[in-house]
Structure formats: structure tokens, C-alpha cells
Amino acid sequence: MSEFVRLEVKDGVGTIWLERPKMNALNAQMQGELGEIAREADARDDIAAVVVYGGERVFAAGADVKEMATLTYAEMVSRAHGIQAFTRELAAIGKPTISAITGFALGGGCEVALATDVRFAADNAKLGQPEILLGIIPGAGGTQRLSRLIGPAKAKDIIFTGRFVNAEEALAIGLVDQLHPADEVYAKAVEWASQFVGGPALALRAAKGAVDRGLEVDLQTGLEIERAEFTGLFATDDRTAGMTSFVENGPGKATFT
Ligand code: CAA
């Protein structure tokens, strides 16, 4: 039973709630719970898409610094895999995922948002990777996912300085995709996620896998990944339903299983 992370499912959309007072600081327990709930969201057939949300006030202020403050090097060596695991599990959800960001999304909190496909932010959002100010660097994927998302120069500026990026700048540099008032950002994210309810789940999984795996390899290998995913979909009922419906009724009218 999770204490700090909750999965709520409504009308085909799963919301992963971050719920650890005061700032959703991600201690080791919460990191483990987040990874476990991400796996559950991936596996459940009643979830078509996932929203990650920290509530109206704050998304997450990062890993729990108080918990980490006294860890030795040797202790961190054995924990570091776990620190990357929760964002890896989140990124591995084979369904569309979106973060609804209010207030601070810092350090591990920003890295949670980076592990989803899309980010909607409240106009009061502040994102950043302030680990450098603690004498460390991002450890939950930030150096890799941030630079892939916004490019190495902007990522380095943010990681080297540890500065906070406000909502307008985050939108301008592609760190977030849409801005909304704080009390609307969750509903807007749910609306985005709802588009995929009743959609072709295997094709969505294949599309996400092809884009994400493709970003990790050279172009030729990426094209091979795409080809394998593309041809594989010809074995699915959704492909039959989608194409038959197009031929008989025109575009966009297919019902998928
Ligand atoms: N870990 C533990 N406790 C935290 C925390 C964190 N990351 N962030 C905030 N808190 C706690 C504060 O210690 C404070 O607790 P008390 O009330 O018991 O003193 C409470 O939350 C409220 O925080 P503030 O009083 O500081 O509130 P503020 O509004 O003045 O500032 C803030 C908010 C800007 C988020 C500030 O707290 C802050 O800078 N937090 C740290 C952010 C940070 O460095 N994150 C990176 C963590 S390292 C990491 O994430 C590594 C990784 O890659 C996985």
C-alpha cells in the first residue's frame, strides 16, 4: 500500500498523485512507490493515458535533501540505481503521459516531469535543476532528458546555474508545452489524456516506443525500430478495424478494442 503516491483511475485516465507534505520531496520510499505505481499504470487495461499531478500548490521540490544529507558515498553507490529507476519506470509507461505542473518542479521533481511525454504548467510554475547548489548534479535522469528535450546549451545553463525557470521561459524553450491558470492546469492535462481513451492502444505504445528508442540510437537503427513497430501493427485487430472503417466510412470513425 502506497503512502505518498496514489493512483486514481477515472474514465480511462489514470492520475498519479504525488502526496507527501510539505513539498512532495521524494524520499526513497516515495521514489519506490512512484516506480511501482508507474508499473501498475502501464499494466492496467482500464488506463489509456496517465497524468502526473502534485496538487494545486506544488509539483515536487526534488529528492528529499534531508534524507540524503548524511548519506556516505558508499551508501549512495547502492541507492543511485533506485534514484534513476523511478523516472525510468515512469518513462517506460507505454501510454501517453503528461505532467500537470503547479508551483515548484525542482531537481527530482523536474526529472519526474521530464519523464512524461508532455508537460502542461501553471503560470506560477518554477522549474529547475538546483542540485549544483547542493554540490551535486541531477541524478534521476536530468542531465540526459533535459538536454535531449531543450538542447545541450540551454540544459547546461540550467544545470550549471541551478536557477529557477519561470513558466513563460519554460514555454519559450520547450521545457513545457502549454501554460494554464493554476486551478485549470490539471483539468487541461486530463482533457489532453482523455483523447486517447478508446484509441488504438498497441499503436500508441508502438509510436511512443519508436520515438523514445529512436532518440537513443543512430538514424538507421531508429528507422529499423520504426519498421519493426510499423509492420508489427499489421498483426493487430486495431489495424484491421482502423483500415476497414476508413475504407467503408471515411477517416476518423474507427472503433478500437
Ligand atoms: N527535500 C527536503 N525538504 C524540502 C525540500 C527537499 N527537496 N524542499 C523543500 N523542503 C522542505 C523545507 O526544508 C521546509 O521544511 P520545514 O518547514 O520543515 O523547514 C519546507 O519544505 C518548505 O520549504 P521552504 O521553507 O524552503 O519553502 P520556500 O517556499 O521558501 O522554498 C523551495 C521552497 C524553493 C522549494 C526550497 O525549499 C528549495 O529550494 N528546496 C530544495 C530544492 C532542491 O534543491 N531540490 C533538489 C533536490 S536534490 C535532487 O532532486 C537530486 C536528484 O536529481 C534526484
UniProtKB/TrEMBL annotation:
SUPFAM superfamilies: ClpP/crotonase (SSF52096). The keyword Amino-acid biosynthesis does not apply. Signal peptide: none annotated. Keywords: Lipid metabolism, Lyase. InterPro entries: ClpP/crotonase-like_dom_sf, Enoyl-CoA_hyd/isom_CS, Enoyl-CoA_hydra/iso, Enoyl-CoA_hydra_C. The keyword Lipid metabolism applies. It holds the Pfam family ECH_1. It comes from the Bacteria. Belongs to the enoyl-CoA hydratase/isomerase family. PANTHER family: (7AS)-7A-METHYL-1,5-DIOXO-2,3,5,6,7,7A-HEXAHYDRO-1H-INDENE-CARBOXYL-COA HYDROLASE, ENOYL-COA HYDRATASE-RELATED. This is Enoyl-CoA hydratase-related protein. It comes from Aeromicrobium wangtongii.
